[in-house]
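Researcher: Before we compare anything, I want clean individual predictions. No alignment, no superposition, just each chain on its own. First chain goes here; please echo the sequence and then give the structure tokens.
Model: Echoing the first chain and its structure:
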Amino acid sequence: MIDLHYCATPNGQKITIILEEMGVAYNVIPYDIFHGDQLTAEFGQINPNFKLPALVDHDPMGGGDAITVFESGAMLQYLAEKCGKFLAPSGAERAVTLSWLTWQVSAMGPMGGQASHFMRYAPAGQDYAIARYAKEVGRLLTVLEKRLEKSPYVAGDNYSIADIALWPGRATGFFMQAGGENQGAEEWPATYDWFQRIRARPAVVTAMTRPDLKAPEKYLGRHQKLSDDEWSNMFGDANHAAVKQG
């Protein structure tokens, strides 16, 4: 059994997608990150960065004690190696997959996250930050588009953890879903086609619609108004205090 410490963010959705693709049993432990559920000392023993998702595998490969894994890229690689799918065991295909996986967690993910933060949470008057991150997301989407013009999937001919990492993200998902069903189809047609093909996969449908995995309303939408406590738990003093006390 795998315990998945979960919130329905794009990083969390990466992990539910691969678990559904694997067809394995897993136990969802939900967290309300606005409420600060992730800031406890107990969770800090699972992830010292106090961020979601994280997993505990009680039946690891080779046996032995339970294994804890945090950071979505590491979790995807761990699960792919556990099930023997979505990541080649060696060679060029593996190298390309890990390159694009790392690109997602180091470039597309953070830039999309910053764009989302300033659009959704920042006070008025953040025009420079919004323009800076939106422009960079556009550049990164163009990088992805050029790749997908040449290849049906991000790492080549096969669906992989690189696709799983990229699909739920604030960048690829945001341009498709926030502004209407066909947004992005003209500017990034290959990415649009890729997005829709993955969206139709049964495991993805389940991961995005199962009642215990769906995002609450307050995780959705563009302009969110947070209470003082919610801001503290997400970005402020409570968030920083958890790390210092951990």
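Researcher: Okay. Second chain, same rules.
Model: Second chain and its structure:
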Amino acid sequence: MEEPRCVICGSDKRKQKFRKAARDGTMFTLVKCAHCGLEYVSPRPDPDEISAYYDDNYFMQRTDRGYNDYFSEAMRQEIERVVLLNLADLDFFSYEESLAGEKRVLDIGCAAGYFLNLMRDRGWETTGVDISPACVEFARGEGLAVYEDDYLEIAFARPFDLITLWASIEHLHHPDRFLEKAHDELKKGGLLYISSCRAGGLNFKSLMGSRWRFYNFPEHLYFFSRTLMEKILEQKGFRIAKYSTYGSGFGAPGSMARKAADRLARMGPGDMMLIAAERV
């Protein structure tokens, strides 16, 4: 177990918020940086130990931490639907039209490669990275170029027009280092897309407290507000070009209450945030 400093301000001063059990019963503690307010899990398993929480059950059994058969056609269609909505919210299609010649994208935490498949169909050269053997095997079976490795350990020969972190940054032990590397591997004016759970501000999280759907320990390690996400991006050489929110987690899936809450979430109080950050 390790006790990290805050990745934004470097402080080791923290306040305990609450403790919550992982699916194996191990108790983990959510803390809040006493200096900048970032929420994160500490102490936490190191990168080697945490891999045990990403076994096949994480992708095959429906829980508040995992998925209901991530490799099913129904899941593919749902993920593609959400990704296309996210791309529209981020003005991706205008950005795509502005690019001449070869277009290259890197998806960090690409899982089964559904986003990469979409981009390949649009004529992009695609590359993915993930640490899940099952996901990498599936993506490679689709003919995708995917590394089973730590992104920080991979060197790429040519820069990218777009790098994406779809619901991934909250899982990372070193999000600051990932952002630094992504900055170096983007073309000047290239874009970084991030989707992540949103702490802080008025959102659906405030209704749930410690029962919030994204307080899944230790798979989720960091919980950024918009303000703190903007701060760490600025530190690493990015500026936010587009921002929006979505998702409520309120009510049963498919219910009228969920649909109404999700419509409201897109107006500002969503507990997921979408960011397009430009390399400057």
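Researcher: What stands out in the second chain?
Model: Residues 65-197+224-279 form a domain with the Rossmann fold fold (CATH 3.40.50.150). Additionally, The first helix runs from residue 47 to 50.
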